[in-house]
Design brief:
By secondary structure, this protein is mainly alpha-helical. Helices cover 55% and strands 4% of the residues. Strand 1 and strand 2 form a beta hairpin.
């Protein structure tokens, strides 16, 4: 049997400890055990195991309390987050980039976007062009000009004949042919 404390599921661990207690009481009602360097009687061993079983109840209650508390926090946060977002926008609109008043609210001025240097812009444009060529992407107008061409499609109409009288020597009819078409060119 694996170590009780290595079980990840509390319910499984609790069930294992309770099974140890039940098995000990059933098979060794008046037993005496030397485990390690300590001597235990059945009653003392059951008392130790029962202590662990009793410790599960407060842990389960604490976990339930934490779950309830976290759920309440998340519900409150969901209510307040939009207000904070709008209020922060209002403060930024009111004080613009004045760092002292924004600092009083715990906000930093927005960073000014630095334009790319000329050499970096040239490299970025070359990368964009190479990526479009590698992927074969085009503009909207060029995409609209691409049309698929389907040729060689043979259509065979399916007709329903009236049912023939059933005879034991009649062979089943072959299925009707199905129209096949070559794959269309991608758009």
């Amino acid at each position: 049997m694996s170590n009780i404390m290595s079980v990840k599921n509390k319910a499984t661990a609790l069930a294992r400890v309770q099974a140890l207690i039940a098995g000990t009481q059933k098979h060794f009602p008046n037993g005496q055990f030397t485990l390690g360097n300590t001597v235990y009687t059945t009653a003392s061993l059951v008392q130790i195991l029962q202590g662990l079983v009793d410790a599960f109840a407060p842990v389960n209650a604490a976990h339930a309390s934490v779950k309830d508390t976290v759920a309440a926090f998340r519900a409150e946060e969901a209510k307040v987050a939009p207000v904070i977002r709008v209020y922060t926008s209002y403060i930024r609109a009111t004080f613009s980039d004045a760092s002292a008043p924004l600092g009083d609210f715990g906000l930093q001025p927005r960073k000014v976007r630095q334009p790319l240097a000329t050499d970096k812009r040239v490299v970025a444009a070359a990368k964009v062009k190479a990526t479009r060529a590698a992927r074969g992407t085009t503009s909207k107008k060029k995409k609209l000009a691409v049309k698929g061409d389907v040729t060689g499609v043979i259509m065979t109409p399916v007709t329903h004949a009236s049912p023939a009288p059933a005879s034991p020597s009649a062979t089943p009819a072959a299925p009707a042919p199905v129209a096949t078409a070559p794959a269309a060119a991608p758009k």
